[in-house]
Amino acid sequence: MILVIDIGNTNIVAGLIDGKDILFRERLSTAHRATKLEYSVLFKTAFDMYDIDYKKVEGAIISSVVPSVTNIVRDAVESLCGISVMVVGPGVKTGISIVIDNPAQLGSDLVVDAVAGIEEYPLPQIIIDMGTATTVSVIDKKKQFLGGAILPGVAVSHDALIGRTSQLPKVAFEKPKKMIGSNTVDSIKSGILYGNAGAIEGIADRFEEELGEKCTVIATGGLAKVIVPLCKRDIIVDEDLLLKGLMLIYEKNK
To answer: In the chain, at which end, N or C, are there fewer CB atoms within 10 A of the end residue's CB?
Structure first.
């Protein structure tokens, strides 16, 4: 059994994989001030919930865009499970060619997404990861990571709107009864959700125009399953893309 962990700015996604089977997947809040002991308790609780012995974990791998949390989570897992933890970064084999201006600037989560995308879906492809930021990545037929776009995530857009206005309320991220909102709450839902749907569709269309060919479009991340059904074009939702990518990288480097 391999523990795979993605540390994002808002959430930590952890999954336990045995062969091709994902035994569990859980989402934790990224606690920037949490100690090794506190993270150990969180991971132990996840194992206990599924009645799995954490001492049977054979290995672990982490991708992270929060450097201040990476070592704490790694130390917590190593202490709890008694194993060495791999961290995605320089020197780790991925099998993809990164041809952006400065490859060192590329977030490890985007690398992991690309590894899984190349393994699972036809090329060329566009990968949309809807987290704190929404990232849109392009991989060509040669398995080259060409670059992409970064825009505010759904929750960030919502919080900015509410934080900068006096009378607009917070809303749940659920599809409104109709797109033309007849009240404030439904109008915000329509604007945030359909606005993000239109944004990712528009970016994907323009990326295809620049490439000169059609792409497989894959979406992942916490809100992909909410936004993608509002899109008019075909987009594959794969909520486990990052977990699959971490497992593939682990296997390439063990």
So the answer is: C
The answer to whether 69 touches 63, Cβ cutoff 8 Å, is no
| CATH at residue 46 | 3.30.420.40
From 87, 122, 149, the end of a domain falls on 87
Q: Of 151, 154, 111, whose CA–CA distance to 246 is shortest? A: 111
pLDDT of residue 235: 97
Compute the average pLDDT of residues 39-62.
95
Q: Bridge-partner residues for 27, per DSSP? A: 13
CA-closest candidate to residue 217, choices 230, 232, 233, 229: 233
pTM: 0.92
The whole domain housing 135 covers 97-242
Residue 6: CB atoms within 10 A of its CB come to: 25
pLDDT tens for residues 134-182? Answer: 999 999 999 999 999 999 999 999 999 999 999 999 999 999 889 999 9
Residue type, 162: I
Distance of CA 230 to the CA centre of its chain: 20
Q: Partners of 239 in the beta sheet?
A: none
Among 21, 101, 109, 159, the active-site one is 109
pLDDT in tens, 184-225: 999 999 999 999 999 999 999 999 999 999 999 999 998 999
Token look-up 């201006």 returns 101
Give the alpha-carbon dihedral of 18, 20, 23, 27, to 10 degrees.
110
